[in-house]
Design brief:
4 copies of one chain form a homotetramer. By secondary structure, the first copy, chain A, is an alpha/beta fold. Chain A contains 12 helices and 9 strands. Chain A has 2 domains: 161 residues, NAD(P)-binding Rossmann-like Domain (Rossmann fold, 3-Layer(aba) Sandwich); 125 residues, N-(1-d-carboxylethyl)-l-norvaline Dehydrogenase, domain 2 (Orthogonal Bundle). The longest helix of chain A is centred in the middle third of the chain and has 29 residues.
């Protein structure tokens, strides 16, 4: 079992740290919220008195933070952990952030002799609690294998996308594509409905034809076609419009960096921005169906 | 075994009629091309000396024609078959045409006491030859069941989409969605490549995540990720850009009829129009990948 | 002064016929609404007892109808006017319809020796009343000149776009472009506002730079930048979202006919469809600004 | 006459500095290219031996640099000019950069008691030489007025857009709108041409109707409609596709910052990215017309 430092005990980080404890690891936690720290302490974690303390004797430091600037600051800012980490520690950043920040932090740590992988997750709060998250990892083969040994205690599918930063890139490629599947499926279903088709029948046909995609399989955006999906449950999230909009923003930022053309991705982003304008940011991202159906 | 009249022996109709013969049916064929008729005659078909003759004693009349105007003319034009068909005949139009024309012809025939289903196909020339086509059928339950009895000799998946015209609507909903999957997957893959990711690895990750869709499963648009797909074979079709553009035109026509909003479908249509402008109409529709990758 | 038959006395047709009377012409009118006919009779028009009667001794027949199918039916349907018109009559169809219908009717009339121009208008109900409409005319030079002699009694700008049908094409090209200017200007203004800029200042800068366009000059979509425009008046039309959506539908139909790529036009159409979905069809088309600004 | 320091003597900066000399100012110049410095020295400029030297006794420091990172570095990097500038100097940054960088540098200088305006230009190399540039300025009223006194020696239209950063925002709002006008006008013209209309006639009609915009007035994208425009001259720039793509990237970056929806702007950006993919980055930005017309 390993000594693990854990930074960031929010909606996702909390249950992730909890699962590491359940697996038998020794976990030292840090968060600005004393409540969050207390909660994990009850479950057996050690509370760090300062963020630097999570580095002490840590074989792994795992972080789960809101945005690139926080990750840059914690590791590479003034008094950054870069000055406190042991060379034998592997840093695993599970935050979903821009690839540029992941590469920057990874490279700075590398210069200081410290190993780093970016390992953004998908699967949401439910997946974090159940330990069924997906991790998409960027880093060397050796670091991936080492990270894998503890990521499997928090998740089910662990992918190795490539070098440092590749985890972030692969995740936003996937989520950009997902937004396109969701919007495209919604358009096709509503056009069928407008012509008198039954959405269950049309969904079944497309699911068994070349229109098949993840949203038709598991996350149909039209109410009452599938059970136990957000659309049938008043679009309660699930995965919020605001979070999808955030990921689509990261995707456009990445496209910008490489001059990549992404006309559908840019359109999907703007449709999600229109939903935010309409005050639907806190609904499930499948609520884009309503953009087409509400008349 | 049934008496079947068959009109339209082109790239698709020829092999379809051929499969009906192989299944033991008695088939009377008509086409403007004498060559096409001769080809089927060798295989055992009776050559009709006029289009009206396909109606004689026919339990089924199957047609496979290029556009709505041809279907309207053959059945409901001056000297249309509407005046020659028996009331016991079931008309099965397998053409991919606008839903409005299918509904018009179906309704006119109904007034004359003649049954009709629209049954557009997908699966391409290869599927027509192999008898593995998909049929999406619009019509009553009784007519669907009757049609089904001979469609299974030409295809593998037979769907019942709803009333007359619903076959056409479901097909273009599916193909509109397919074009969105193809373009969206191409964008996501190329953005990953632009950031240094291996398209095989990225494809594998998205295939096992929420980006999963038919194109990643069976028809990856990036060369050399999968074997035996058009992208790995110089984008030889397969399903031509020109045909996808035609279907997307029918989709926009249908959207127009019902004021349905289809921003991604409209965009995909225009991207395929741009490909036609660039002289790529005869390439496989997965060649949209080149719009993003060629630099 | 001329003998003129006038068909269609709606919101636009009524005041147009009225202006012909004021200019001293002898006008025979027909409409399905007896009220509309009575209204014009008071102003000095002769009421036709049947639509055929507008043809009697007419030097011009002017029509103002809702859609292509009405124009086809009135002129070329069973008992169409094609059988009643004199060869010396010039038919001037002022309806905004699809170019294909205009060409069909024009060609059928030509075969019967009757001259035809399509002459769709812009300028709205206010322009119809004030006699300041714009007419965009398709037809031969001779027919254009002849039409011009009475169009100047109803409008201010009379353009000759080309042959029969060209009037319709030019009008929808213009209106498609207008919708793009309106949506694009709205986006730019709101992005500026989101960054703290004053919309008056930004409008003034763009009006005097390369962003200059008709909407910034005369029809600013942001409330309180200009006086006496719909945006400053609660988006009371003006030119309704529903009418712009209709014209954009005709534009996409025309694009379809020639396989023309119009990605921005298709997008603008879909944004107007989304507004209709939101129940804003009766607001002025500049209300697209709210799609961006409402938060 | 004023003492002016000038940093960045490229295609734009060179002729701008030259115009300041012609107006009688005393100008001290710096550039990494010795050639560029020598060229200005011949015209009467003093060559600074280091970039710090441009600050000596300067009433104004003008900079013209490629991107935000250069502006940040020169002023606020290690050994940045922030440590060398007098409090009485007004810094005028004429670079086109992201608004965030302009605000960052402006705020840092303000903390050190030094005044700053951002003043991006439009008008191209020809306008720089002729002294007819447009400047869009962000800063306080007092600083704007002070800047204005020397900007008039380099340009014709000087706008005050708002506070620090507002010059950058207004410029990209305008250029985003311009790209939409250019693409939209190209679509409308080509759709007309596809239907047999003469582009000169259609341009004239739209120019006098609600489709009127700057591109129809002064920069028609269709060859041979206007004289002395890039389209009639083989699309020789003018304003390059690559530069428009850069500005559209800055626009999307700004939209990202504020979650602004810009569907048409995002689409225009992607169409320009597609042109870059096709190797047309060095052509004039009106060459987007070819995307629609080449068949």
């Amino acid at each position: 079992m390993a000594n693990i430092g854990f930074i960031g005990l929010g909606n996702m980080g909390g249950p992730m740290a909890s699962n590491l404890l359940k697996a038998g690891h020794s976990v030292t936690v840090f968060d600005l919220s004393e409540e969050a720290v207390a909660e994990l302490s009850i479950q057996g974690a050690k509370a760090a008195s300062s963020v630097e303390q999570v580095c002490d004797n840590a074989e792994f430091v795992v972080s789960m933070l809101p945005a690139g600037k926080h990750v840059r600051m914690i590791y590479c800012g003034e008094n950054g952990l870069i000055n406190h980490l042991n060379k034998s520690t592997l840093v695993i950043d599970c935050s979903t952030i821009d690839a540029e920040s992941a590469q920057f932090v990874g490279n700075e740590l590398a210069k200081a002799g410290i190993s780093f992988v970016d390992a953004p997750v998908s699967g949401g709060v439910a997946g974090a609690a159940a330990g069924t998250l997906t991790f998409i990892v960027g880093g060397t083969d050796a670091d991936f294998n080492r990270a894998n040994s503890i990521l499997t205690d928090m998740g089910k599918n662990i992918f190795h996308a490539g070098n440092i930063g590749a985890g972030q890139v692969a995740k936003i490629c996937n989520n950009m594509l997902l937004s396109i599947l969701m919007a495209g499926t919604s358009e096709a279903l509503q056009m069928g409905i407008d012509h008198g088709l039954d959405p269950k029948v049309l969904s079944e046909i497309m699911l068994n034809s070349s229109g098949r995609n993840w949203t038709l399989e598991l996350y149909n955006p039209c109410p009452d076609v599938q059970e136990n999906v957000p659309s049938t449950n008043g679009y309660k999230p699930g995965f919020m419009v605001d979070l999808m909009a955030k990921d689509l923003g990261l995707a456009q930022q990445a496209a910008q960096q490489t001059n990549s053309a992404t006309p559908l991705g840019a359109m999907a982003k703007n449709l999600y921005n229109l939903m935010q304008n309409q005050g639907k940011g806190a609904e499930d991202f499948s609520a884009i169906f309503k953009l087409y159906s509400e008349k």
